Amino acid sequence: MITMTNMKKAAVSFFAISALCLAMTSQAQAVPVDVELSLVWDVSGSISASEYDLQRQGYANAFQSAAVQNAINSGTNQSIAVQVVQFGTNAIVSTGWNLVTSATASNFGTFLSTLGRENTGLSTSIARGIQISAANLLSNNGFEGLKMVMDVSGDGEENVGANPTSVTQQRDLAVASGIIINGLPIVTSSFPNLDDYYTNNVIGGTDAFVQVANGFGDFESAITAKLVNEIGGTTPTPEPSSMILLGSGLIGLVGYRMTKRA
């Protein structure tokens, strides 16, 4: 019988191993992976405790599914690197970068199932989530992916400072840096057209797409399908033009990325 104590032990063990891998690779050449994947979760005030649990368990079950594990195994490097960013008014990196293979995906899912909710504030700033996620994708994180993907999920629109244009600004900066942003809008009666908002304001980059969850009960199915799509297609992301990057708020971070590639 799997108990919560055993789940926590497995999660701690997985995280410790991943941390050790990162410590080793930070002093050596970056580990090649198919995808550097940043999972960006909405934990704003509109998300109840039970809804947060549905999101968290949805991610956990997805990584424990045969579909996602087969997608990981189908890649050139048969591995991905994953981190989690949670956002509300602000955004917080909830995990460091974790090396995930088909053999370790179940343990990673167990780790995610124990992940606590960060105190990020009650408002919804998708822009801040994108900004923090992009900074970590572009940093010298110990991994070198064929593509960098940001996976944004949430149940509402930007409402921080009544400035929705900040979402598109952060999206455009990230995309200019070579990042693909995909969206998983959780459509409810509060925002019945959230999929249109994500299409117009959130997603961007090569083959970017929106995967709709029709309510929180549909989240696990939607995120599983989304991860299979994101992980299964590993066409390298084209390098951005230096002219596009010039003057952007991410130019310093791109320098770190270039150092990493050297």
Automatic annotation (TrEMBL):
NCBIfam families: PEP_CTERM. Gene3D superfamilies: von Willebrand factor, type A domain. It comes from the Bacteria. Residues 1-30 form the signal peptide. Residues 36-231 form the VWFA domain. Pfam families: DUF1194, PEP-CTERM. This is DUF1194 domain-containing protein. Keywords: Signal. The lineage of its organism: Bacteria, Pseudomonadati, Nitrospirota, Nitrospiria, Nitrospirales. PROSITE patterns: VWFA (PS50234). InterPro entries: DUF1194, Ice-binding_C, VWF_A, vWFA_dom_sf.
